[in-house]
Amino acid sequence: GARRGGAAPRRGAAAPVRAAVSEPTETKQAGYLQRKKEQDAKGFTRKKLSKLASPTPSDIAIAQACVPNKIKFVAEAYGLTEDDYELYGKYKAKINLDVRDSLKHRGAGYYVVVAGITPTPLGEGKSTTTIGLCQALGAHMDKEVVACIRQPSMGPTFGIKGGAAGGGYSQVVPMEEMNLHLTGDIHAIGAANNLLAAAIDTRVFHEKTQSAEALFRRLCPTKKDGTQFFAGSMFRRLKKLGIDKTDPSELTEEERAAFAKLNIDDDKITWRRVLDVNDRFLRGITVGQNATEKGHSRETGFDITVASEIMACLAMTTSLADMRERLGAMVVATDTSGDPVTADDLGLGGALTVLMQDSMRPTLMQTLEGTATLVHAGPFANIASGNSSVIADQVGLVMVGDGGFVITEAGFGADIGLEKFVNLKCRSSGLKPNAAVIVATIRALKLHGGGPPVKPGQRLDNAYTDENTDMVTAGCANLVRHIQNTKAFGIPVIIAINSFPTDTPAELEIVRLASIAAGAEDAVVCSHHSQGGAGAVALGMAVDKVCQANSAATDFKMLYPGELSVKEKITKIAVDLYRAGGVEFSEKAEEQIAMFTKQGFGHLPVCMAKTQYSFSHEADLKGAPEGFTLPVGEVRLSAGAGFIVVLVGAFPTIPGLPTRPQYYEIDVDVVTGKIVGLS
């Protein structure tokens, strides 16, 4: 199963998930089948879909026709007791983190990551393949399996892309609940993020409008007995300043001033506000324009909530103690002396952790065929870390135990989501994947082979529906590049060819042969969108075979060591994975890299923020380009999350709405209360 390696666990980390001594796979499988029989008697059904409609109905029509199991039965089927979860209605539950300890005697399952080739704006069915594969393994192959996927942002849900619960007969249900508010984790992140933003501007305002002594008196008020006191959260700043006194009255005048005045440089406040909506007009704003702010205005902007560093902390953390440290360590600004100012300097690390405490637990849901899904964290892959949480993967691995499978999804193409899965997520967790599934479509390969532009809401050109083997052959250069990059991490690759009705046998065979020639272990045509798990059984068999052959994952490796400089890490990704000829750093990026390195953050890995539609920075540069110069326009520090974000070119961190957004389709039947038009 999954093996540990790489960097040591972070501070406050929970006991790592390890493959422990456990009963033989045959015995465990027999135990699983017995539990499955018992659960069937209680009303739980891990069912093979039947009576599939053709043509395939809309996603929401299929989802609403499904009668899901009550989630408590799904939990019990995986050996969870009522003490291991908290119900959120009939079909969702939050899983307690201590199951990682109570179930560790089972060992850890195989660890499989799903990524894709460079997509079209329509998406190539990566989430659908993740769910279809899990349905195949669980409902059709009698394996224990858990899917780990991200919580969808409502920005894309109401914008262009739609939801992220899968599609067709390979979905997570109820899809309406997953694609909208779920259990409120994204809302909690927004509240925590914006509380911190408010605290920063308010602190700057108060420091500019009163003396250090007056500010100290207000920060350390006098009790009825005449004594002053520090709040518990203040001792972290005192420790940072080297002050070990616990009585405010004992501080010298100089110590009181150092404690009270953060001296934040207005021009170097990096923390931005967030909301979970695609609103391009908030990319740049001015705050503090009301007369009550006495002229203390400044320029700032909004990001989409899933790009918040707090979301990244949630995705990377391993325990509540670790989350507390990460949130407190987030750098929000630089002071006038050039030193970092953190959330703990503002006394806010504890309050942020309180807001995020419930969100620490993954949400248990189910697929159409009754297999378990853990939904947790939702960082975008093009502007953030792009993977579901370390915690969800750890929980899933012990839920399935030895011989089972955790299928975790990485966002967009393998150059983005899978690269971050390796260099950020696995570096933090120490887990090693046993296999990678890369999803490809004939449609995307034709686009990379010279096909006309693909635009949401517009009819596909005939080039994508008529047979064109030359275009597919040319487009396979993109697929080959992704296979090569993934194999460079020491991960064996299986290609899942997500088939469409217009694909021809000749086109599909070209992709299969090109994949094998490039070093893939197998290439399998899948039809899970129209057939559910039955359409991904061949893929499941290929994954099972590869995982058994690579059970120790001994060849897995990172792309770069931590001791490289920030610029060297960026260049390594650009040249080795993107095949750029070099990197051009803007003057602003050079200054930021120098500052972060001086502040002691040069050892952190890097998180590239760039277009998902090309290996390069130019979305229209398709196929497998090489030799281009990659422009780095800006660099941001995510000290709590544990990486440095690199913005390639002028890359926006909050999307905009298209001319015809998805929200035109979404409504509610006021008689039945059912949602319509969600996709």
From TrEMBL:
> What Enzyme Commission number(s) apply to this enzyme?
6.3.4.3
Query: What Pfam families does the entry give?
Result: FTHFS (PF01268)
Keywords on this record? ATP-binding, Ligase, Nucleotide-binding, One-carbon metabolism
Q: In which pathway does it act?
A: One-carbon metabolism; tetrahydrofolate interconversion
Q: Which InterPro entries match?
A: Formate_THF_ligase, Formate_THF_ligase_CS, P-loop_NTPase
- GO terms for biological process, alphabetical: tetrahydrofolate interconversion
* HAMAP family on file: FTHFS (MF_01543)
Q: Which residues form a coiled coil?
A: none
Has the keyword Glycosyltransferase been applied to this entry? Answer: no
* Top-level lineage group: Eukaryota
Its source organism is: Mantoniella antarctica
Q: What is this protein called?
A: formate--tetrahydrofolate ligase
For the protein in the UniProt heading, the enzyme class is ligase
Q: Where is the composition biased (Low complexity)?
A: 1-21
Query: Single GO molecular-function term?
Result: ATP binding
Q: Where is this region: Disordered?
A: 1-49
